[in-house]
Amino acid sequence: MSQNLDRSQVLYLIQKQWKCRFIRPDRSDKTLKYEVRNIDALVATVVPHFREFPLISSKQADFERFASVCEAVKDGEHLKLAGFERIVGLSMEMNPSGKRKYTTGEIINSLRLDRRTVCT
């Protein structure tokens, strides 16, 4: 989540309520970002919150995909090729109008190339 500095208090309230992670400045857009990167904290705290209090916008569909990705990673699906491909697919469906550095195919192919290199 991000807020401009003059509205950052909401980030500190959320951090206090959820008791997890940190707030950092983003110099690229001069905002503060509240980040939770720990998969256990995401699944135990963030996902249940937004399931109990759904977003009132089209962002709810992105949240459901995000929640599925978090749960899949927590279950170790990302460690198997099929699970990783599913996670990449879900991730690419989120924020479809956003800029992407890599395509789905490039991500999957890079993993396949890495596995081939490691296994030989």
- The end-to-end span amounts to 42 Å
CATH superfamily of the largest domain: Homing endonucleases
Q: Please state the structural category.
A: mainly alpha
Give the SSE string.
EHEEHHHH
The DSSP helix count reads 5
Q: What kind of sheet is the major sheet?
A: 3 strands, antiparallel
In terms of topology, how is this protein built?
Elements lengths: L1 E3 L4 H10 L3 E5 L4 E5 L3 H14 L6 H16 L6 H13 L10 H16 L1
Helix pairs in contact: 2-3, 3-4, 4-5
Written account of the structure:
- The relative contact order is 0.08.
- Strand 2 and strand 3 form a beta hairpin.
- Helix 2 packs antiparallel against helix 3 and helix 4 packs antiparallel against helix 5.
- This protein folds into two domains: 35 residues, no CATH class; 81 residues, Homing endonucleases (Endonuclease I-creI), CATH 3.10.28.
- A three-stranded antiparallel sheet has the order 1-3-2, covered by helices on one side.
- It is mainly alpha-helical and 120 residues long.
- The chain has five helices and three strands, in the order βαββαααα.
- It is globular and about 45 Å long.
